[in-house]
Amino acid sequence: MNGAVLVSLVGVYLxxxxxIDIVVGGGISIFIxxxxxxxxxxxxxxxxxxxLDDDTQSQIVTIIEEEHSVNDYHCLKTRTAGNxxxxxxxxxxxxxxxxxxxxxxxxxxxxxxxxIDPSKDWVINIHMxxxxxxxxxxx
Length: 139
Ligand SMILES: [Zn+2]
Hints:
The chain is of the alpha+beta class and 139 residues long. It has helices at 2-15, 19-47, 54-66, 99-114, 134-137; strands at 70-81, 84-93, 121-129. It is built from five helices and three strands.
């Protein structure tokens, strides 16, 4: 920007065309506004929490669906705020699976979800259902 100002000053001095200064000044103004907009957008998105992007959500769904002892899932809710990613989900297990096994599978799913983006802090809450209670939870 300093270089552009210097060039425009020299240009105006040599040619006496003041339009050079106006055009360069206008260009610099647009650049500053554009840069400020990007910074503001970034800052606002960090402050506002929102759902995880579609790609990350579909990776989470794939991880859940790949686990054979999980029959179904519901109430999947995701949220990101700053460096934290939050995931809440109900997993429907076969009612005869032991709590130990269901817990082991849930831990495995959590570990795989965290590997989607290891640079984030993940807070994952898995609710283990022995049957599909999505009707009750969606009311
Ligand atoms: Zn449920």
